[in-house]
Design a protein that fits this description.
- This protein is α+β, with helices and mostly antiparallel strands and 107 residues long.
- The protein has a single domain, classed as ADP-ribosylation fold (Alpha-Beta Barrel), CATH 3.20.170.30.
- It contains two helices and six strands.
- The chain has a three-stranded antiparallel β-sheet. A three-stranded antiparallel β-sheet has the order 2-5-4.
- β4 and β5 form a beta hairpin.
- The termini are far apart.
Length: 107
């Protein structure tokens, strides 16, 4: 299943080296969170609205497109999923600037 994970650019090098690790989650539930591709804009906005993102802009974030087996995932709500496993870098499909999401939508 293909999902989108949004994170700060500051975390990117560690993520490339170690994968997305639930041990580093900042939420109460220690998990890697992702949204379906159709919810990407919501995922970016949601991440930018978090307390730990204060002072950061959309240009300070990246989106990581991941491909994981559906059996690894639990559904939180429509279009929002979580995984309690490490998602290694070989499961990354694409890494792009979060600001690039605006390029997908015409003015």
């Amino acid at each position: 299943m293909r999902l989108i994970h949004v994170t700060s650019k500051a975390n990117l090098e560690a993520i490339k080296a170690n994968g997305l690790d639930p041990r580093f989650a900042t939420m109460k539930r220690r998990a890697v969170w992702g949204v379906s591709p159709s919810n990407e804009a919501w995922g970016v906005a949601h991440t930018l609205g978090k307390k730990r993102a204060r002072g950061l802009s959309i240009h300070d974030h990246v989106t990581i497109e991941i491909e994981v087996p559906r059996s690894w995932l639990r559904r939180h709500k429509r279009g929002v999923w979580y995984c309690d496993r490490v998602i290694t870098a070989d499961r990354f499909v694409e890494i792009r600037e979060s600001a690039a999401i605006g390029e997908d939508y015409p003015n």
